[in-house]
Amino acid sequence: MDMKAIIDFFTNPDIGAAASVIGVIITVTGFGFTIYGVWRAKRAAQEARDDIKTKQQTFDLSTSIAIIEEIRRLHREKAWTVVQDRYTALKKSLVAFHCSNPTLKSEHKEMIAKTIKVITTMDSEVERKKVSGNLNIEHLNRLLSESLDELNSIQVFLAFRGGK
Amino acid sequence: MITEKQKKLIEKIHTKTAQDQLDWRDTAYESGYLISFPEHTVSITENRDFELSLSISNLDGKVIDIISEDDLDGEEKQYALYLKEIFEGARRKALNADQAIDTLLAALD
To answer: What's the ipTM?
Structure first.
């Protein structure tokens, strides 16, 4: 092939048009891949954030659950002065959980509000009766068991929901 | 003396309790029951002088409003009756009284 034939080939308007079309296709395809890559990276970041959020939520609830277990033991030991500090810690933990999770389901918020109020009544009863020691430990621990079951159900729900 | 809003609240709770639509729960008090909402709780308690009071608490468990039988006079005495009926309904619901009766009836058949 001589030099003229090569020049004719590259100066042919049809070849130029075809090259333009191919260029556009390559550009659009590349852009599509870029968009897809960005979307995947964003989704992965969101999943990571959700995962961290779930872990934080279940950790916060685990703290409350552990305090309830401790309170039940303190009731059995009749350690009334110590237990009142734990009531405060439990309420703080639950209020913090409630406030830091505005997307909680309504029924879960109700469970938490109920537990906080029950603990408040417990604190008041213990304050009133700790000197006489006339406290119904079985009743107090039954109330705590109910709260424990409810908090566990929230924890299971959050774990399955994945922090959304 | 109670406000119109407080009257409305008592009426609504009275109606819904009578219709068994509220999930009254036991408290640590010997004579106290509560219902919970996402941000508040409502409690009904009977004191040592057998006087009833209905209170609203915030999320921290602090009482933010209270209606006592003591506050009711004159025409408001009707609301004292409502409080009494709410208390009875709450006790029955929280302690599963109806369920207990059903079980007993089944056992006696």
So the answer is: 0.85
